[in-house]
Amino acid sequence: MAAINGKLESTIIVSGLHIVSTPIGNLADISLRALATLRTSDLIVCEDTRVTAKIKSAFAITTPLLCYNDHNASKILPKIMELLQKGKIISLVSDAGTPTISDPGYKLVNSAIQERILVTSVPGASAMLAALTTSGLPTDRFLFLGFLPTREAAKQKTLKALNEFRATLIFYESAKRLSATVKTMADVLNPRAAVIARELTKKYEEFWRGDLTALALKTSREREKKGEFVILLGPPQAAEPPSNETVNQMLLEALGNKTLRDAATLVAQETGLKRSDVYRQALKLKENIIKTE
Ligand code: SAM
Questions:
Q1: Where would I find the H helices in 115-151?
Q2: Which residue in 61, 121, 179, 215 has a CA-CA distance of 20 to 30 Å to 111?
Q3: What is the DSSP string of 213-244?
Q4: What would the pLDDT profile of 11-37 be if each residue is shown by its tens digit?
């Protein structure tokens, strides 16, 4: 079923290649159209049959699976094209989220288009959009860069080329490389706001927000944290300094379980303000609290 002009209409699933998004953590994010398409397909082309088998069993889907990835593409792609040319309904899924976004499938989509085979989208979750729309960073212009190169020199070169780019930058990164990558970003790029989105849509979803230098510190402290991460960097313009009220609020929260000195250090890191200024403000705040008690 699909909503058109506010009405639900029957979905007609025709032969061709269907690019079907699946959840990025929360199984309830699967769409009605995704389920109908996966059930009706003659074949589901997926990255890892063990991962997609879990989706199949969760939603009682019986469609057969075929593994397609960067390693076997040259052998498997012609087989898929043959089936498409025979008029089969084929769904492409990835392990999670939207196929082809930092996942295999681009060549298959391109080949189908070249052969004038219908290619259609069953849209749904993608970590990049879930992260961007909850980041609080500007969404009017953004650039998705996927995974940075793993070699340090290549990583630095890519980042340097982006330094003046006036848009929110979105990266994927593994838990293992997160801390090193955010440190490189802080070393190479001009100051800017940053957000790290962890475990989106899952039980331990969380967001780390602050300026890039503060987040480099935070990720080095949280090095043991596992999970999936999206890194978002705000555009390079000088960030508006937080208001006195915001700083007081942050200090009050930090003073709940920290000494005055530690609270001031933490808030200075999170806001990018000078530690001595934040410390003075914390002293004043504490004096006012004592006066009103
Ligand atoms: N095609 C997927 C999509 O549409 O989001 C992305 C696949 S890519 C191989 C996997 C990367 O996406 C992870 O390393 C992580 O950076 C990001 N990712 C996927 N799921 C996530 C989640 N639930 N929370 C945060 N990041 C996630």
A1: 127-135
A2: 61
A3: HHHHHHHHHTTT--SEEEEEE--SSPPPPPPH
A4: 789 999 999 999 999 999 999 999 999
